Amino acid sequence: MIRRLSQARERGIPEATVARLPLYLRALNGMAERGLATVSSEDLAVAAGVNSAKLRKDLSHLGSYGTRGVGYDVEYLIYQISRELGLTQDWAVAIVGVGNLGRALANYGGFVSRGFRVAALLDADPEVVGDRIAGLNVEHIDELETVIRRRGVSIVVLATPAAAAQQVADRVVAAGITSILNFAPVVLSVPEGVDIRKVDLSIELQILAFHEQRKTDRMTGGPAMAEEWPEAVDL
Amino acid sequence: MIRRLSQARERGIPEATVARLPLYLRALNGMAERGLATVSSEDLAVAAGVNSAKLRKDLSHLGSYGTRGVGYDVEYLIYQISRELGLTQDWAVAIVGVGNLGRALANYGGFVSRGFRVAALLDADPEVVGDRIAGLNVEHIDELETVIRRRGVSIVVLATPAAAAQQVADRVVAAGITSILNFAPVVLSVPEGVDIRKVDLSIELQILAFHEQRKTDRMTGGPAMAEEWPEAVDL
DNA sequence: CCCACTTTGTGCATCGGTTCACAAAGGGAC
DNA sequence: GTCCCTTTGTGAACCGATGCACAAAGTGGG
């Protein structure tokens, strides 16, 4: 018996591929809205901003969903990617920390794109507890464990000050959460098995600055070449 | 003549290393505040959440700044990394799009950590133009080119709706900007030589969902294994 | 001055990811 | 049915990044 499906599906999609699937999904949704029925790897690759060989290899990790000579069925591919990413179920998300950023996240519409639902907002500041934001009541951080349990929260977004993040992380992990999106500028330490993704504005800016500096250096003929430590520290 | 410095500094720090330098810098700043004079690669690596061999290799790309048997001088290393990242000069940043997110960014203190200064806020909505946010006047997007030129803006943060992002990107590029931090959920197309970094909440959540699903699948004995396309589309 | 100990810097093996380039597969015309 | 055209799926070469493991370099004690 020749197994036609799932030659490459014995559990294990490369991390780099997983990170691109949401991109493909977004491009596909745009195409579906514009009424396209099928799309070639070339066109989809352009829309997603990657090269077509990479796109095909990525999709091949999910299964063999294209038709040679034709391309991919847009709706079908949307379904397959959504399923693979786990977006056919809906995920209850709790946001901890309702400062400027937390508020922005709560109100961010596209964030509830598909599959995600903000189920709770929590904060430690009695000043904001009770406020109504994006149709939700802000609850006190003391309710954290209860809220997670009662509302089936499985993903927590940390938008707290840096100083509070580790402490909150410990509590949500203790409450059984294994997926955290961290906006606080700290390195969180969590037990194995807990996934953390980090978004850090400051780091992104610094990376840009590095490249920007290099670009302007090039124009002005390189850096001062022997820019030394201001004090008299000789190597 | 044996060149003692810059064996490995002939222009070209790996991208992966650049992305970690800000992490090291943050950890080092914390240590400097606590009064530490020197630090070993092992300790710094733990603080930054990486492994020590990687840390040493990263630092070796900047030069040979450690002392065997001792470690690294905290202040000196802070200076070297800052210089390499271009943080010894200050960068004027403009934020375009003053919705919830733009506001949060403008107010985000740690963002002006060192070297960055929000020099302008711009928006297309006459409703918000003129508002005072984080000590700055919100200006109309028509002023974009003027503001960039007059205030020496070299990094632009896009926090506009998805639909407006490409158009704004075209304008800032035309105005000479080559570094963009994009928060809008679109793939921007820009000429070669322009650096774009993208922050996308929705994508991060989807990646988390993927892993979360996999974890729960494992517990319940794998996915339904032959979960098919709902309609009668036979492969 | 010498020895024991610490810690850096790096050569090397390895791994994961990207890209090329092409055989295999399907569609459509005649 | 046959031929030609399009497009997928993938083997294989390549490239950058990671991690091990150790020699080289420095410190401090006696």
TrEMBL record, chains A, B:
Gene3D superfamilies reported for this sequence: NAD(P)-binding Rossmann-like Domain (3.40.50.720), Winged helix-like DNA-binding domain superfamily/Winged helix DNA-binding domain (1.10.10.10)
Ranges of the DNA-binding region feature: 23-62
Similarity comment: Belongs to the transcriptional regulatory Rex family.
Record InterPro entries: CoA-bd (IPR003781), NAD(P)-bd_dom_sf (IPR036291), Rex_actinobacterial-type (IPR058236), Rex_DNA-bd_C_dom (IPR009718), Tscrpt_rep_Rex (IPR022876), WH-like_DNA-bd_sf (IPR036388), WH_DNA-bd_sf (IPR036390)
Major localisation: cytoplasm
UniProt-recorded Gene Ontology molecular function terms: DNA binding; DNA-binding transcription factor activity
Organism name: Planomonospora venezuelensis
Protein name according to UniProt: Redox-sensing transcriptional repressor Rex
Domain (CoA-binding): residue spans on this chain: 86-187
